[in-house]
Write a structure and sequence with these properties.
Length: about 280
């Protein structure tokens, strides 16, 4: 599952440089404001190969950010976090000295939906001089590293995913009940098969997974936590140092990510568009 440096693909238009042997590649020789079918096809292939792509010096307007995302798939609107006025598809993650915000838990996005996102494209607008990196984990490699006994234990089993652990945490019981009618708990396979590559990956995450189907939360705790911890193995990870106008683009179907919460007291603003996905199988 690791990248073999002797077998990195050649591309006609873009330059692809892996950042670790497990996950991630930096893409250069491309301006995302000026795209054609060949460039999009090459970016798609590099995305499948490396799971997370990084771009530098991409000064995209809101409209151009949307247009790049739309070139890769249909854009979705977040069910709980409002977008920018006039751009509902653009979600802002704003961290200020008075309101520190960081997704400081390993997770993959919005898995409480019937069809979780395909992926996201996150653009750095205002970046602190230090801190605020984002880490990514290859959950296909994490699955491969499981022992055979655990693989057998989870094969064919499902986990229950819910918004309640995160977005519902500050809601009243009445608000939770109303939201649950719109966004009922979902049952997704613990071992997900990627719809384009056919590779297996772990598809549970601490942010949204409540329990394993057929088990109480207490009964499933040890197994769930063992699976959650697989994202923390350094050998499956890469770490991205943000700069203004940098982009991180991840495949939500086979990765997890973690925002390092070490930029308190500094302003940080990133904006993302998210692509509609399909039901995990």
């Amino acid at each position: 599952m690791r990248v073999d440096a002797t077998k990195v693909r050649d591309f006609n238009r873009i330059r692809v440089e892996p950042v670790t042997g497990a996950i991630g590649a930096e893409i250069s020789n491309v301006d995302l404001r000026d795209l054609d079918d060949e460039i999009i096809a090459e970016i798609r292939q590099a995305w499948l190969d490396h799971k997370v792509l990084f771009f530098r010096d991409q000064a995209l307007s809101h409209e151009q950010h949307k247009a790049y995302g739309a070139a890769l798939g249909e854009l979705e609107i977040h069910p709980f976090v409002p977008g920018i006025e006039g751009y509902p598809e653009l979600l802002v993650i704003d961290s200020t000295p008075d309101n520190f915000v960081a997704a400081e838990v390993w997770h993959t996005d919005v898995t409480f939906r019937p069809c979780p996102p395909l992926g996201s494209i996150l653009l750095g607008r205002t970046i602190p001089p230090y801190g605020g990196d984002t880490c990514f984990a290859n959950m296909e490699l994490a699955y491969d590293l499981l022992d055979d006994k655990t693989k057998a234990q989870i094969e064919g089993r499902f986990a229950i995913h819910s918004y309640v652990k995160s977005f519902g945490a500050d809601m009243s019981p009445e608000e939770q009940a109303s939201a649950l009618e719109k966004h009922p708990d979902q049952k997704h396979p613990i071992v997900r098969t990627h719809p384009e590559t056919g590779k297996k990956s772990l598809f549970v995450n601490r942010e949204f997974t409540l329990t394993i189907d057929g088990m109480t939360a207490a009964e499933s705790r040890d197994l769930r936590h063992k699976l959650y911890e697989m994202a923390k193995i350094p050998e499956v990870q890469c770490r991205f140092r943000w700069q203004p106008n940098s982009i991180a683009q991840w495949d939500n179907r086979c990765t997890q990510h973690y925002a390092v919460p070490d930029h308190g007291g500094q302003y940080r603003r990133v904006e993302r568009v998210t692509l509609v996905g399909d039901r995990p199988v």
